[in-house]
């Protein structure tokens, strides 16, 4: 396996100033002709440097240089490149290749989905379309001609503006597209086939109109309203909050059922997984609506952060991804808060923040602690597709958020303007971004810099922060000691201290925030942000009343694992009184976590003091009318099994952990049945029509969170059965179905009804598969693995479709720990054989699925033995893709 290193970056020899592409689209054999105008990268550069083009699985027809056909002695062709040695500094290259889209199951390059053509070029798919310098620092102006059969492929789209459209004699037609903006090849896209669109015209800030279109396969126009609305909101929001306007006359979104990822920000022609476009109340849950809005926003925001300024090389991926995730998170938060009063708005924002942090803790913290740990700006990779990770994306967003915290909104926006002034139209680096922010910071705080802050870009691993404090009654001082450390990660044994922004509050025993008066060190406090920069630091606060409890990392101000010396009483106090909703939620989660661990370590005993405290806290939460429904739904929900697995100090048996969590759930349900029922019923009897907004979604969330407790036994299960039947929306219907399928002895009739109702709706069927694939080991009818094996044989199952594959395989191996980790090892064996099967079909998706055992070294010894056997089975397979090979070999260490 070849490893690529960030330090090896060198500039290419040539620019490609213009790129003309011509496609004769045919499922079995598409002819791709290109005409590339090249010039020297450095003006002073010598003659005779080679032109280096990437290409894979291409059938080369001919190469012409400045009009002269090159015979084979004048170029070198390998499996991955076409090299023209001794090339002139400047000239025109013409290349013709043939490709076979119908055989492309990898879904990278040009492929077919349901008879239509799509492309996916990021990161390195363009090289599967034609020979080209397939690297993000080569920006070119593209003009694209598409020729296709008119009847089979009436709609043909590419990036930019439609400049010509004609019928051709032989039943074919032709369109010509010109993208006014230079772009790297990974932003190229084409789509061709049978589509219909919803469209709307808007007016840009400069008074010019722009056409917005959402294209889908016929029959799906009843699912596009919300995506269109989200797009308009995103455009408006980027204008308002970032001062960034749409730079195109035409902005298109096209949905496909076969897509490796969520969506792709190709210039002016975003291609989306249907999962992040389709939304109507019957088919999409509140979470789906939220995801559609955020992904539509995300791809749109890439138009500036990603496309106008792109990445110099793929090690800089977080430059666009971390920043764009930060932007989409802020967009969603602003949308959720829109139109609410101040208190409701704060609560809606907190709910969004909690949701985002849950993802980070459940998925990114394990990544940072496992064999794939990497800095948000990696130093090396074998397969770049494996580095579209929660670290690069979500931790990357946290690193941007910390800069936002340190600078404040106004200076952060100033930093954004500096960034665009310096780098618009360029391929930039993470360093360029931080340098722009540093300039903005120093405009207001000339004595500060981001030197130490840059460690967040270069160092992997989640920092551990331990916090302890004592009160000096005589001086009315609270002395807070913070210590930070970061465990070794692959290739990084020791790490200098991080610059960690700690948003802090001091909560007095009456529940009020005290004013912050920092005595020492001088200047470490800015507003409510403590700058924590040393391995160990002591902070002394003055004027502190007795009984005051510090609230640390409010709003999750840094992506760290905190161990604070709270007593149980203090945690319960914060869960009741912290004025920061994030920390209030977090304190409660810590109480639940400790209670579950207490049960886990006592083999099921619920009489311990942590369980008792959790129960009292639960009773309080259920009765507290001052909390919003959305917040309360999160506050009463137990931490996920993946989060608990990570938090436990020592080796874990996920099956026993599941049962411990289940025991607490049953105990809390039994003790609080009355209030739970009251909460449920107050929200179940409403009759208003479904609407997606923070308040309505919060209400449904609390209703379903209450039902989740109530369904531990029959009376609650009857409620779920009637909710399933009477639901007028997918949130309530699927919520009930999930609970029945996971808890009731028999949910076959509901599962059958759901199947019959939605058998023509692929995304709803994915949910049907997923519900069953996540049935836990505690299910009363026993052995859910048999059900999963049956799902794999179901006529509607299809490993080639990534959404369907994920709905069973990822659901079972990553979201169903008690079945996946069953002690016999059969779960691991099933996973291994599916990864091997998928490896041959779609290496990129197989690479994702291959990560299910990343954290196997945290399993109990006998499970480790089973896990190793499964990993070795995959490793021994002939013909492993680089994607799967990298993951498995790193896991085996
Ligand atoms: N930029 C795309 C990522 C596609 C990568 C495929 N290997 C999605 C996004 O972050 O918007
Ligand atoms: Zn992105």
UniProtKB/TrEMBL annotation:
GO MF entries: aminopeptidase activity
Domain Peptidase M1 membrane alanine aminopeptidase residues, every copy: 226-453
Alphabetized UniProt keyword annotations: Aminopeptidase, Hydrolase, Metal-binding, Metalloprotease, Protease, Zinc
Record's keyword annotation contains Protease: yes
Highest taxon listed in the record's lineage: Bacteria
Matches recorded under Pfam families: DUF3458, DUF3458_C, Peptidase_M1, Peptidase_M1_N
Catalysed transformations (reactions): Release of an N-terminal amino acid, Xaa-|-Yaa- from a peptide, amide or arylamide. Xaa is preferably Ala, but may be most amino acids including Pro (slow action). When a terminal hydrophobic residue is followed by a prolyl residue, the two may be released as an intact Xaa-Pro dipeptide
Domain Peptidase M1 alanyl aminopeptidase Ig-like fold as annotated: residue spans: 461-563
Residue ranges annotated for the Peptidase M1 alanyl aminopeptidase C-terminal domain, each copy included: 569-892
Residue ranges constituting the Aminopeptidase N-like N-terminal domain according to the UniProt record: 50-187
Transmembrane residue ranges: none
Signal peptide bounds: none
NCBIfam families reported in the protein's UniProt record: pepN_proteo (TIGR02414)
Name of the protein: Aminopeptidase N
Lineage: Bacteria, Pseudomonadati, Pseudomonadota, Betaproteobacteria, Burkholderiales
Name of encoding gene: pepN
């Amino acid at each position: 396996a070849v490893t690529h290193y960030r330090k090896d970056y060198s500039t290419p020899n040539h620019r490609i100033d213009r790129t003309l592409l011509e496609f004769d689209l045919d499922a079995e054999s598409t002819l791709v002709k290109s005409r590339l105008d090249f010039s020297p990268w450095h003006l002073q550069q010598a003659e005779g440097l080679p032109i280096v083009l990437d290409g894979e699985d291409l059938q080369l027809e001919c190469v012409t240089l400045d009009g002269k056909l090159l015979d084979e002695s004048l170029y070198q062709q390998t499996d991955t490149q076409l090299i023209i040695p001794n090339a002139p500094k400047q000239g025109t290259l013409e290349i013709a290749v043939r490709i076979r889209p119908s055989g492309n199951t990898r879904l990278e390059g040009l492929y077919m989905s349901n008879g239509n053509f799509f492309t996916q070029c990021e990161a390195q798919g363009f090289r599967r379309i034609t020979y080209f310098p397939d690297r993000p620092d080569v920006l070119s102006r593209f003009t694209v001609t598409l020729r296709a059969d008119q009847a089979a492929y009436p709609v043909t789209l590419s990036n930019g503006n439609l400049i010509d459209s004609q019928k051709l004699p032989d039943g074919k037609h032709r369109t010509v597209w010109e993208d006014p903006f230079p772009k790297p090849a990974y932003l190229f896209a084409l789509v061709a086939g049978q589509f219909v669109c919803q469209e709307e015209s808007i007016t840009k800030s400069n008074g010019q109109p722009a056409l917005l279109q959402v294209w889908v396969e016929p029959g799906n126009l009843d699912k596009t309203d919300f995506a269109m609305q989200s797009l308009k909101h995103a455009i408006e929001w980027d204008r308002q909050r970032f001062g960034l306007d749409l730079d195109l006359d035409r902005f298109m979104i096209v949905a496909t059922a076969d897509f490796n990822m969520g969506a792709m920000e190709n210039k002016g022609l975003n291609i989306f997984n249907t999962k992040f476009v389709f939304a109507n109340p019957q088919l999409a849950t509140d979470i789906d609506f939220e995801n559609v809005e955020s992904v539509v926003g995300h791809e749109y925001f890439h138009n500036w952060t990603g496309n106008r300024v792109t990445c110099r090389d793929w090690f800089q991926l977080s430059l666009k991804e971390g920043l764009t995730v930060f932007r989409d998170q802020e967009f969603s938060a602003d949308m959720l808060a829109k139109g609410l009063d101040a208190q409701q708005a704060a609560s809606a924002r907190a709910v969004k923040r909690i949701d985002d942090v849950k993802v980070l803790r459940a998925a990114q913290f394990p990544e940072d602690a496992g064999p794939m740990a990497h800095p948000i700006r990696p130093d090396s990779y074998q397969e770049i597709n494996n580095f579209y990770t929660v670290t690069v994306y979500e931790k990357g967003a946290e690193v941007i958020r910390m800069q936002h915290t340190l600078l404040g909104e106004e200076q952060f926006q100033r930093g954004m303007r500096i960034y665009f002034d310096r780098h618009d139209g360029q391929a930039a680096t993470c360093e360029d971004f931080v340098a722009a922010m540093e300039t903005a910071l120093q405009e207001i705080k000339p004595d500060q810099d981001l030197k130490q802050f840059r460690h967040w870009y270069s160092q992997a691993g989640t920092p551990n922060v331990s916090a302890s404090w004592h009160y000096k009654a005589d001086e009315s001082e609270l002395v807070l000691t913070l210590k930070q450390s970061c465990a070794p990660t692959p290739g990084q044994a020791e790490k200098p201290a991080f610059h960690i922004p700690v948003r802090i509050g001091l909560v007095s025993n009456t529940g009020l925030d005290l004013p912050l008066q920092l005595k020492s060190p001088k200047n470490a406090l800015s507003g409510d942000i403590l700058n924590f920069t040393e391995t160990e630091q002591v902070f002394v606060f003055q004027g502190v009343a007795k009984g005051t409890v510090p609230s640390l990392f409010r709003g999750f101000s840094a992506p760290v694992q905190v161990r604070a010396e709270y007593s149980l009483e203090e945690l319960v106090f914060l869960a009741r009184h912290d004025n920061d909703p994030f920390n209030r939620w977090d304190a409660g989660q810590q109480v639940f976590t400790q209670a579950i661990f207490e049960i886990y370590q006592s083999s099921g005993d619920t009489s311990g003091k942590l369980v008792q405290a959790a129960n009292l806290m639960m009773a309080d939460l259920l009765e507290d009318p001052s909390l919003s429904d959305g917040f309360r739904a999160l506050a009463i929900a137990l931490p996920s099994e993946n989060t608990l697995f990570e938090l436990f100090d020592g080796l874990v048996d996920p099956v026993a952990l599941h049962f411990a969590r289940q025991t607490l759930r049953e105990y809390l349900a039994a003790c609080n049945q009355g209030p739970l029922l009251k909460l449920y019923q107050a929200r179940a009897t409403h009759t208003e029509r479904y609407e997606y907004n923070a308040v309505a979604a919060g209400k449904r969330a609390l209703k379903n969170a209450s039902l989740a407790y109530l369904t531990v036994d029959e009376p609650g299960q009857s409620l779920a059965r009637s909710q399933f039947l009477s639901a007028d929306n997918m949130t309530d219907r699927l919520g009930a179905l999930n609970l029945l399928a996971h808890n009731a002895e028999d949910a076959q009739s509901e599962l059958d009804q759901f199947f019959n109702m939605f058998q023509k709706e692929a995304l709803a069927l994915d949910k049907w598969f997923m519900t069953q694939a996540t049935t836990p080991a505690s299910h009363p009818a026993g052995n859910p693995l048999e059900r999963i094996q049956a799902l794999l044989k179901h006529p509607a199952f299809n490993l080639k479709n990534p959404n369907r594959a994920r709905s069973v395989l990822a659901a079972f191996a990553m979201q169903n720990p008690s079945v996946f980790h069953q002690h016999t090892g059969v779960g691991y064996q099933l996973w291994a054989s599916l990864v091997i099967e998928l490896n041959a079909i779609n290496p990129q998706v197989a690479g994702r699925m291959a990560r299910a055992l990343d954290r196997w070294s945290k399993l109990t010894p006998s499970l480790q033995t089973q896990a190793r056997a499964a990993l070795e089975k995959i490793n021994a397979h002939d013909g492993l893709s680089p994607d799967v090979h990298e993951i498995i070999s790193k896991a085996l260490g």
